[in-house]
Design goal:
It comes from Alterisphingorhabdus coralli. The chain is an alpha/beta fold. It has helices at residues 3-11, 14-30, 54-64, 84-94, 121-128, 158-178; strands at residues 43-48, 69-73, 114-118, 138-140. Helix 3 packs across helix 6 (158-178).
Length: 188
């Protein structure tokens, strides 16, 4: 496989590869790993740019598993539907139906027990500066799988959507084990 195809499949594009490379030292310096106590987390809140692919997929995947989850985008158009390619790949490859999803913007209302999980360092920095979102604990979703930057697949190949969604799936698998109180109906 030519190098360009490998980059497109694994990182989205050269920009995604560069952002991933930069995210490792940024995450180490900023300390955006997952350090929240399991008993303090009641809901996972996924954050991305437009809330139409990555965070939407993560939210619906968690909800399908019976976990408390929500999502929003730092530059979302409130009410926008999930991206068509995201809908197709999510349903065909993962059995996750995004057709009902509607984007939420930064007017999102955080609750006690929320853990905000961003796809990129710059999104963490953005929500840290918003008064309504600066208090809940924050981390990089990809930090749980040692991939701190989950590049936006919007407008990229279906192969990269799969790569991105696979990373999100692996991260959610680990979060489900780490935070057992996320299951809806958990009483303790």
């Amino acid at each position: 496989m030519p190098i360009g195809e490998k980059i497109a499949r694994n990182f989205g594009n050269l920009h995604g590869l560069a952002r991933l490379a930069l995210s490792y030292p940024q995450a180490a310096i900023l300390g955006h790993g997952l350090s929240t106590k399991a008993e303090d987390v009641r809901r996972l809140v996924f954050v991305c740019h437009a809330n139409v692919s990555r965070s939407a997929f993560a939210e619906v995947l968690c909800s399908k598993r019976g976990m408390n989850a929500a999502s929003f985008g730092v530059a979302a158009e409130a009410g926008a539907p999930a991206d068509e390619t995201a809908q197709k790949v999510a349903l065909d490859d993962y059995g996750v139906d995004l057709t009902w999803h509607r984007a939420q913007d930064t007017r999102f209302h955080a609750l006690p027990g929320d853990l905000l999980l961003a796809m990129e360092v710059r999104q963490l920095n953005r929500i840290a500066n918003l008064p309504n979102l600066s208090i809940p604990p924050r981390a990089l979703l990809g930090s749980v799988i040692h991939v701190p930057h989950l590049h936006d697949p919007l407008g990229l190949s279906e192969d990269y959507y799969r790569t991105c969604f696979n990373r999100i799936l692996r991260a959610v698998d680990r979060l489900e084990i780490r935070f057992p109180r996320l299951k809806t109906g958990h009483n303790s």
